[in-house]
């Protein structure tokens, strides 16, 4: 049994995509980030960076004590290795998959996240910041579009790289992007959206729609953390 500490963010969706694809038994443990659940001591024992998602694997390969994992990319890699699914066994395929997983973790996710922040949530609209992150998001879309020019999925076969990237493309309109400008992404996006596991994963998220973030009420929790809060 996998315990998934979860909220309805792109990083949270990555893990439900994987779990629904593999039918691994799992339990959702909601962590309402707008209410501050991410700062509860019991969650920090699992995720010291006070961010979702995190997992606890109660039945790790080889037995023994439960294993906890935080950071969405690390979780995807852990689950892929646990199940032997959605990561190639051959060296070259594995390298191709992992470099695109890390591309999302180090590039698309942080840049799109800043795009969301300055476009949607910042109390002051700063044109330089908005343009900077909208343009960088567009550049990353172009990189992905080029990668998909000769293949169905990012690393060939559907993999944890696609699962990591897809949820960050879902809010493309919020990011100031148009999928028709990136036809290879548009084709890839529609294919993943139609997968039964993707439909199930996003249906799980819909169950929490009544607890959607109130940014004004939760601004300090979400955006005003500092070194002094990590104590």
Write the topology of this structure:
Layout lengths: L1 E5 L3 H13 L3 E5 L10 H4 L9 E4 L9 E4 L1 H12 L7 H31 L5 H21 L12 H10 L13 H11 L2 H11 L8 H9 L8
Keywords:
single chain; 231 residues; 2 domains; 9 helices; 4 strands
Strand order of the biggest β-sheet: 2-1-3-4
Distinct helical segment count = 9
* CA distance, first residue to last residue: 31 Å
Corresponding CATH superfamily of the largest domain: Glutaredoxin
The count of β-strands is: 4
What is the SS-derived class? alpha+beta
**Residue share in helix:** 40-55%
Order of helices and strands: EHEHEEHHHHHHH
Tally of distinct domains = 2
Q: What ranges have pLDDT less than 50 throughout 5 or more consecutive residues?
A: none
**What's the alpha carbon Rg, rounded to whole Å?**
18 Å
- Proportion in β-strands: 5-15%
User: What is the CATH third-level topology name of the largest domain?
Assistant: Glutaredoxin
Average pLDDT rating: 92
Biggest β-sheet description: 4 strands, mixed
Class of the largest domain, according to the CATH hierarchy?
A: Alpha Beta
Name of the CATH architecture of the largest domain: 3-Layer(aba) Sandwich
Overall 3D shape = globular
């Amino acid at each position: 049994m996998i315990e998934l500490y979860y909220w309805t963010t792109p990083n949270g969706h990555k893990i439900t995509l994987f779990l629904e694809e593999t039918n691994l038994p799992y339990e959702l443990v909601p962590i309402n980030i707008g209410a501050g659940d991410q700062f509860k001591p019991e969650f920090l024992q699992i995720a010291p960076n006070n961010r979702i998602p995190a997992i606890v694997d109660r039945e790790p390969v080889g037995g023994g004590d439960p294993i906890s994992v935080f950071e969405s990319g690390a979780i995807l890699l852990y689950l892929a290795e646990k199940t032997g699914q959605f990561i190639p066994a051959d060296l070259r395929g594995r390298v191709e998959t992992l470099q695109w997983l890390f591309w999302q973790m180090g590039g698309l996710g942080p840049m799109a996240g800043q795009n969301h922040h300055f476009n949607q949530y910042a109390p002051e609209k700063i044109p330089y910041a908005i343009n900077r992150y909208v343009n960088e998001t567009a550049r990353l879309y172009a990189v992905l579009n080029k990668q998909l020019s000769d293949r169905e999925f990012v690393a060939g076969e559907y993999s944890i790289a696609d699962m990591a990237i897809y949820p960050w493309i879902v809010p493309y309109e919020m990011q100031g992007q148009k999928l028709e400008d990136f036809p290879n992404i548009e084709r890839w996006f529609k294919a993943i959206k139609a997968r039964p596991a993707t439909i199930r994963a996003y249906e799980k998220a819909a169950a929490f729609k009544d607890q959607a973030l109130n940014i004004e009420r939760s601004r300090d929790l979400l955006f005003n953390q500092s070194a002094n809060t990590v104590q």
